[in-house]
Design brief:
The protein is α/β, with parallel strands linked by helices. The protein is built from eleven helices and 23 strands. It has helices at residues 76-81, 102-115, 129-139, 154-164, 189-206, 227-231, 278-283, 331-345, 370-381, 408-417, 447-454; strands spanning 5-10, 16-17, 33-38, 70-71, 86-87, 91-96, 120-124, 146-150, 168-172, 209-214, 234-239, 246-254, 262-268, 271-274, 293-300, 303-315, 324-327, 352-358, 390-392, 395-396, 402-403, 422-426, 440-444. The protein starts with a strand and ends with a helix. α9 (370-381) crosses α11 (447-454). The strands form six sheets. It has a nine-stranded mixed β-sheet with strand order 8-7-9-10-6-11-12-13-14. The chain has a four-stranded mixed β-sheet with strand order 15-16-18-17. The protein has three domains: 5-41; 72-276, Rossmann fold, CATH 3.40.50.300; 281-454, Ribosomal Protein S5, domain 2 (2-Layer Sandwich). The longest helix has 18 residues, at 189-206.
């Protein structure tokens, strides 16, 4: 009889080691390597119990285009970011921190589909049926076509799927599902990898659309091996702060649509509500005659979004170098912009603490926010407010030049729609198409020219 093999597997990237080590040499994470028992292949045969069609090579020119059948969820923000609806037979992974609203969102999605006569199955390994019913009462989302099963054994889940033949299935969560033939505990690399592949294989062959809810690690990535994100068709991340009502659903992978799209929701007592006009919502609490604040027209995916950038500079009494604290922007980028301001404008920020924040709990990483950050820091340092009807967008280089950014027409259109009257942009972004908007364009070549406009 063949003995079981003991291996040490990194729970972050799935790398195998012959013995335990404190740090993974592949993903460089500490304390992620655990012991797992591997059953020999002869004792752990995969049996998917489905007819396999033999695949033959075919010239790419002979391949016929296929129209993907999409299912509308009646939640326009959700449908938009995934490409227009749920593709039949697709597998979607949604990750996020505990309590962020993953289960709430998918419960609402399933209810809308069940109300449209789609058969939906909610598989939970973390909650009881009574808890699901309580959430349904709170959301007013109860329908006979929405079936609930509390199970973690993947074989029983598969059996239920084959008997019910649902249109949509939610697995909450993929880290709780286990297969008896695999000796490791639920949530381990072996369990997550095998069960995700097993369920995805079944979904595609039976034409069932499936959602995986995934836990996330401390660094914000989906727990388990990275191969989990490769198996699925779409990866969504649910972001937000506990003390903010806004929730952001961000697409990082989509085989049936564009990536880097975001959908904005507001958490209420009766569930998640779509935010149809996020720019107006994010700016409604902006105050007038306050220094250190400016509005930047940003682009998230295909959507223009006006955000408020706030900065605060404070003299630290000369006790060493000032602190650099950021929220919603890269602190390294802020440090670079402070260096440019000191070099090109002669500002003395060495002994000043600098705080930069994006209002509303959003996280922005595009370079177009550079000019807004620099001007807000300068405004706070000199305690002089910036014109409330002005927006600014542009990337700042190390020599102080203001570089062009993409999709400027969309940015200016959104700013004009919300009543802004002036826009500072790079001279390289000037085009005739911007003249049709009711907004004054102020082109600049470098950061010094931008400062002259606001000061």
């Amino acid at each position: 009889m063949t003995k079981e093999k003991i291996v040490y597997i990194c729970q972050s990237c799935g790398a195998e080691f012959p013995r335990w080590t404190g740090k993974c040499n592949y993903c460089e994470q500490w304390n992620t390597i655990t012991e797992e028992r591997v059953v020999p292949t002869s004792q752990n045969k995969r049996n998917y119990d489905l007819d396999m069609k033999e695949s033959k090579p075919l010239p790419i020119t002979d391949i016929e285009e296929e129209e993907f059948e999409r299912i509308k969820t009646s939640i326009s923000e959700f449908d938009r970011i995934i490409g227009g609806g749920i593709v039949k037979g697709s597998v979607i992974l949604i990750g996020g921190e505990p309590g962020i609203g993953k289960s709430t969102l998918l419960h609402q999605v399933l209810f809308n589909l069940a109300s449209a006569n789609s058969k939906c199955l909610y598989v939970t390994g973390e909650e009881s049926r009574a808890q699901i019913k309580m959430r349904g009462d709170r959301l007013s989302a109860l329908d006979k076509n929405l079936l609930v099963i509390t199970e973690t054994n993947v074989d029983i889940i598969i059996k239920a799927m084959k008997e019910l033949k649902p249109d949509i299935v939610v697995i909450d969560s993929i880290q709780t599902v286990y297969k008896q033939e695999i000796p490791s505990s639920p949530g381990s690399v072996s369990q997550v990898r095998e069960n995700a592949f097993y369920l995805s294989f079944l979904a595609k062959n039976l034409g069932i659309s499936m959602f995986f809810i995934g836990h996330i690690t401390k660094d914000g990535t989906v727990a388990g091996p990275k191969v989990l994100e490769h198996i699925v068709d779409t990866v969504l991340y649910f972001e937000g702060e506990a003390h903010h009502s806004f929730r952001i659903l961000r697409v990082v992978k989509n085989r049936f649509g564009s990536t880097n799209e975001i959908g904005i929701f507001e958490m209420t007592g009766t569930g998640l509500k779509e935010v149809q006009n996020p720019s107006q919502m994010l700016l409604k609490e902006r105050t007038e005659d306050s220094s250190g604040t400016i509005v930047v027209p940003s682009i998230e995916g295909s959507r223009p979004l006006l955000i408020e950038v706030q900065s605060l500079t404070s003299y630290n009494g000369g006790f060493g170098a000032g602190r650099r604290t950021t929220s919603g922007v890269d602190h390294r980028r802020v440090g670079l912009l402070i260096a440019v301001l000191e070099k090109k404008l002669g500002l003395n920020l060495y002994d000043h603490d600098v705080y930069v924040n994006v209002a509303g709990g959003l996280s922005i990483d595009e370079p177009a926010i550079d000019l807004g950050i620099a001007l807000s820091i300068l405004s706070s340092f000199r305690n002089k407010p910036i014109d409330i009807s002005l927006v600014a967008a542009g990337e700042i280089g190390l020599t102080g030049e203001v570089r062009a950014v993409t999709q400027m027409e969309k940015r200016i259109s959104e700013a004009s729609r919300l009543g802004f009257k002036k826009a500072i942009i790079s001279k390289n972004n000037i085009s005739d198409s911007l003249n049709r908007f009711n907004i004054e364009i102020l082109p600049v070549k470098n950061v010094q020219e931008a400062v002259e406009i606001i000061m």
